[in-house]
Amino acid sequence: NVNNTTNLANPYITYSQPTANDATMVDLLTAKTSVTKAAGDEVAIKFYHRLWALDVVITNGQTEGIGPDDQVTNAPTLTIKSVSVTVENFPTGAQIYLNKDHSPGLVLNTATHKYTYTINPKATNGDVLANSGETATATYGSLLFLPITAGTFKYSLEITYLDSRGVESTFSTG
């Protein structure tokens, strides 16, 4: 929502942090110009990204593993079934000024929430990351977040995968 009624000199967007990794998670760009032109004239406007993006990159760096026949394999695989990112004590939203140089450029809500964003694999049965002498990598994201003070982003990551034998496991980190 653009607030045009209470702050005409410095309009801002009332932004709500999306609660899921869905169509509501979109990039936000703002711009402001003080150039005055005649009607119909072009105005050059420079847009700025106002959110930051988080991508989860998973690499299969294994050189050996146990295959489906319970024998050692030099081509181990990981099949990524799901990736979840949980953020804690994250602002529920903010007022983001269209002019990024306005002080303050944004005002974070004091209300916070715990969000869990699930990123589904690209393939129906999971993304296979095979390693046959060359590491395989997959990128999951981009999750978009409000900018917050450095050192305050609290997250955990959970990856559900199948190993080379087809056994499901979960890797979690804080």
Quick summary:
With 174 residues, this protein is mainly beta. It has strands at 2-3, 12-16, 29-30, 48-49, 52-60, 65-66, 72-73, 77-91, 93-97, 106-108, 112-119, 127-130, 136-145, 154-162, 168-173.
Observed structural traits:
174 residues, 15 strands, mainly beta, 48% strand
Outline the structure in words.
The strands form five sheets. Strands 8, 11, 12, 14 and 15 form a five-stranded antiparallel sheet that branches. The protein has a four-stranded antiparallel sheet with strand order 1-2-9-10, with no helix packed on it. Strands 3-4 form a two-stranded antiparallel ribbon. It is built from no helices and 15 strands. With 174 residues, the protein is mainly β. The mean pLDDT is 89. β14 (154-162) and β15 form a beta hairpin.
Radius of gyration: 22 Å
Number of helices: 0
Helix content: under 10%
Class by SSE composition: mainly beta
Beta content: over 45%
Overall geometry comes to: elongated
How many strands, what sense, and barrel or not for the largest sheet? 5 strands, antiparallel
Q: Helix-strand pattern, N to C?
A: EEEEEEEEEEEEEEE
Number of beta strands: 15
Report the uncertain regions: none
Question: Could you give the topology of this structure?
Answer:
Blueprint: E1 2-3, E2 12-16, E3 29-30, E4 48-49, E5 52-60, E6 65-66, E7 72-73, E8 77-91, E9 93-97, E10 106-108, E11 112-119, E12 127-130, E13 136-145, E14 154-162, E15 168-173
Antiparallel strand pairs: 1-2, 2-9, 3-4, 5-13, 6-7, 8-11, 8-12, 8-14, 9-10, 14-15
